[in-house]
Write a structure and sequence with these properties.
Elements (H helix, E strand, L loop, with lengths): L6 H13 L2 H8 L3 H15 L4 E4 L2 E4 L1 H18 L1 H11 L2 E5 L1 H18 L5 E5 L6 H4 L3 E5 L7 E6 L2 E5 L21 E4 L13 H8 L11 E3 L2 H9 L4 E5 L4 H6 L10 E2 L4 E5 L1 H5 L3 H21 L3
Helix pairs in contact: 1-2, 1-3, 1-4, 2-3
Length: 310
């Protein structure tokens, strides 16, 4: 196989075979016929075969020349279409965003509805995963992660969420709460964070009580444990107990009155949520605009969290 050192020679031979003469190939390539002839002889010497032979005033491909030219023609045709393929891919691919399951269901998905209404020409694909994506292998453009931006990728912090006790309003009927310790008498919903988040010291009822000096002995252990914050929030809406839920993730439920916060005693997460993106994402139509939009939403969320009491 001729290496890259012979690429110019291969290009000259392909042009001669396609155009039928040294003069026509030279005109196409913008060089002299002598330069084309020299490159073809160089290629023949490298391959140790005769590629062209003269018949009368013209040139024809030899048996080896026809075989070699067919392969080169297919290769150069593919190369000439590479730019078009890249342009089509950039223009047609959706912007893909990855997030943790709860983040995807309770924050990203809800936030991106507004983006979709305003930017119908730039479709989005939202996927949920506990794993940090490989941007190239997984075809992901943006990722919202817990913790600082992933090493080796561009990114920025969005906001640091906080947890508060929340429950359905009807759960409190006939059960007046005078003190935060009274929450321990209610059915409590426990969120069991994955071990991969142990380094972030995830929130728990025990940490919340210690942080606010809430005494008392729980009337019972947690009635249900959940692997996902999102399902625990949904269970609290259904009246199954009080959840120590993330404010940003249950904002809609709080605004609608499906959940109430008996005591505004918050416990900040020990790590922020961050947005990371690949370089290729910003080269796609709408990529830079989506990044800026998400960062702005993150700043809005951070401001709203700072304004909360407790």
């Amino acid at each position: 196989m001729a290496g890259l050192a012979y690429l110019r020679a291969m290009e000259c031979f392909e042009a001669v075979g396609r155009r039928g003469s040294m003069q026509a190939a030279a005109a196409e390539l913008g060089v002299s016929p002598g330069a084309v002839s020299q490159q073809v002889r160089r290629l023949e010497s490298h391959l140790c075969v005769t590629l062209l032979e003269r018949r009368g005033r013209g040139l024809v491909l030899t048996r080896w020349g026809r075989l070699y030219h067919a392969e080169l023609a297919a290769g150069f045709a593919r190369l000439s279409g590479a730019d078009d393929a890249l342009t089509r891919a950039r223009d047609s691919e959706t912007l893909t965003i990855s997030g943790l399951p709860t983040v995807t269901a309770k924050w990203l998905g809800r936030s991106l509805y507004a983006w979709g209404d305003e930017n119908t020409d730039w479709p989005l694909r939202l996927i949920s995963s506990e794993d940090t994506p490989d941007f190239d292998r997984d075809g992901v453009d943006f990722a919202m992660l817990l913790g600082p931006p992933a090493a080796g990728h561009a990114g920025a912090e969005l906001f640091t969420d906080q947890v508060v006790p929340a429950c359905a309003p009807h759960l409190l009927q006939g059960m007046p709460l005078q003190d935060p310790s009274d929450l321990l008498r209610l059915p409590r919903l426990q969120i069991r964070w994955s071990a991969r988040y142990d380094r972030f010291d995830p929130p728990s009822w025990e940490r919340w009580a210690a942080h606010h000096g809430v005494g008392g002995t729980p009337a019972s252990s947690a009635v249900l444990s959940f692997a996902l914050t999102a399902t625990a929030i949904d269970a609290a809406v259904a009246g199954q107990g009080v959840v120590l839920g993330q404010v940003a993730m249950m904002a809609r439920e709080l605004e609608s009155g499906q959940l109430v916060v008996p005591f505004e005693l918050c416990l900040p997460l020990s790590a922020p949520y961050s947005l990371c993106w690949s370089r290729a994402a910003l080269e796609k139509p709408g990529g830079a605009a989506l990044r800026d939009w998400l960062l702005a939403r993150g700043r809005q969320q951070a401001m709203a969290l700072r304004k909360r009491p407790g």
